[in-house]
């Protein structure tokens, strides 16, 4: 096992202990509840453990030695991530994630097997997902409690986790509004939404939490937040580019879904102010867009400069993030931990 | 102001401070987010502050003096209550609560005003309610953090709040299953569901939290939990009777909704095993039940003995709860606090 695998294994162990205990508690309350906990556990498995990786990188890079404590903090962010995606799927009325039925989908399919009509089965699925997301959300806090950190550090970690939740709720709300409002948002508004909805809880706050747990200076915590914000925005912008131009294997998503949905991205906002929009506007958001039309949309997004604009923007953000690491109060070990994070994002642009 | 009003005012002050701070944080993240926080605040206002009242009763009855600390713990339970009803409305697809648009309803109506089609407006409403419930849930924990209790007491309070959430999620899941499955649940299964979904977080755990904050013995905490469980079940059983036979003013609900919905209650489960069910089975769950048919259903529920069965059951539970207060380790002051809670429930039967 390399270092990354070792760290991920510690986080997995925390989550496994948490779910084992929770299932033990759930069992006397009924088989259905136990089943829901099992599904929630399955929903936390197989992920990239990206947020715990950020916690660990900051913690170890700043000299932290108690990897078990860091694993609890990392697991808290992972469980927050689970809660947010489970409820995001409720909001998007999605029953599948990465090709596999999500919690709503599993419950719906099970109800259909038992003979429930489609509408009732779907309702049952969504209800179960609302409950499961609540359990994950509430317990992300509890994992923080179990890190063994001092009361003072725990309070600061709780503030950071709170900030993550507070920001992502704001971002989710803006995203819902984007999907409903007819006007095209500005590029800056899209960047703000993506930062709030994803970058804060995936990059900024896990890095800050790792630094706080390591007893770092306020200045180091602040710089890590800045690094996280910039690299997190770069990541999201690239993610949207790959959502249209990527290969299925790289993102786990098809490259037609975002186009059909008419997802508001930096590329789309940029394109909407170019002459290409006369045609693009007809294609983007067309629910039954076929592969030929999708290819035409991709071509237009490239020709009008939207793709290059987004890629350059992401590169700028990633470069700015990298330059933060050069600041004198960032120790070499931390730089070594975070440099690959930034270059991975840059590599995705190529 | 009498003592009850004084205590409620302290809880209101905690919630007001919390929402003032949250709105201040929300403002830079956009007017829509600020608006959501305002709606969430409105959803916590005007309630009976029942759970804080339980916290305060146990705390003061056991000699607690720091009413501000108790107000924070009470407010934590109130915010948990808000989270649960906001998400319960999402699950039940309700857009109105007590005659007033709830969060989903407010957002839906606003979107309709702006010209959104009904389906999109409803979706926006439900999405906002998912997010708002998450915020309330997450922050119920945070209010606990701010009570100023010692780390040890805080950990025990967190365990109790966790228990409340854990149980109500189980109860909500069972309730969803009841509403979907064609078979009639047993009376005992209905009591279990109602205990888990409501009694634990409304009676058992707030009383235990008040006792823990007051530094009470484990035995007192346990007895309060027993009292809470029994009086909580009695309350729920009576609430269901009033949901069919009550007057609008007493419950804030119509007495036809539960019949139309076919809500699984102790009365309905009892009636299903009597000859009256031949006709009752046609009426209960009939979505367009009119007032004449509702009156016929009420008549049959009374004649077949279902109403009396439920009332007697509630009386038994309330009496058993009362007898707990006679146990020697319950101080007189605590008995004085809790006796009215039990008699209020009994008075509802009359």
Automatic annotation (TrEMBL), chains A, B:
CDD domains: Trans_IPPS_HT. It comes from the Bacteria. GO terms for biological process: isoprenoid biosynthetic process. Its cofactor is Mg(2+). One of its GO terms (molecular function) is prenyltransferase activity. Belongs to the FPP/GGPP synthase family. This is Geranylgeranyl diphosphate synthase type II. It comes from Microcella putealis.
């Amino acid at each position: 096992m390399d270092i990354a695998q070792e760290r991920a294994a510690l986080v997995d162990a925390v989550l496994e202990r948490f779910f084992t205990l929770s299932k033990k508690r759930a069992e006397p309350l009924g088989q259905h509840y136990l089943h829901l906990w099992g599904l929630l556990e399955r929903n936390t498995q197989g992920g990239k453990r990206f947020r715990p990786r950020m916690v660990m990188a900051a913690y170890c890079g700043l000299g932290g030695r108690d990897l078990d404590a860091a694993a609890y903090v990392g697991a808290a962010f992972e469980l927050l991530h689970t809660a947010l995606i489970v409820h995001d799927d409720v909001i998007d009325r999605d029953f599948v994630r990465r090709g596999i039925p999500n919690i709503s989908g599993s419950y719906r399919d099970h109800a259909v097997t038992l003979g429930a009509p489609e509408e009732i089965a779907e309702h049952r699925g969504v209800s179960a997902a609302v409950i499961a997301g609540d359990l994950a959300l509430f317990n992300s806090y509890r994992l923080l409690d179990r890190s063994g950190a001092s009361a003072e550090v725990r309070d600061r970690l709780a503030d950071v986790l709170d900030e993550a939740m507070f920001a992502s709720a704001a971002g989710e709300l803006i995203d819902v509004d984007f999907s409903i409002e007819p006007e095209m948002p500005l590029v800056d508004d899209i960047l703000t939404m993506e930062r709030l909805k994803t970058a804060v809880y995936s990059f900024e706050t896990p890095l800050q939490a790792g630094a706080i747990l390591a007893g770092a200076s306020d200045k180091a915590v602040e710089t890590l937040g800045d690094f996280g914000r910039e690299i997190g925005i770069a990541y999201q912008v690239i993610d949207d580019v790959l959502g249209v131009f990527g290969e299925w294997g790289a993102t786990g998503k098809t490259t037609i879904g975002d186009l059909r949905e008419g997802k508001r991205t930096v590329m789309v906002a940029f394109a909407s102010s170019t002459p290409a929009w006369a045609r693009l506007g007809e294609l983007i958001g067309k629910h039954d867009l076929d592969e030929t039309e999708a290819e035409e949309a991709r071509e237009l997004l490239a020709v009008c400069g939207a793709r290059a604009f987004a890629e350059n923007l992401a590169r700028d953000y990633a470069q700015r993030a990298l330059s933060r690491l050069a600041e004198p109060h960032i120790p070499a070990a931390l730089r070594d931990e975070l440099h690959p994070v930034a270059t991975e994002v840059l590599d995705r642009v190529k």
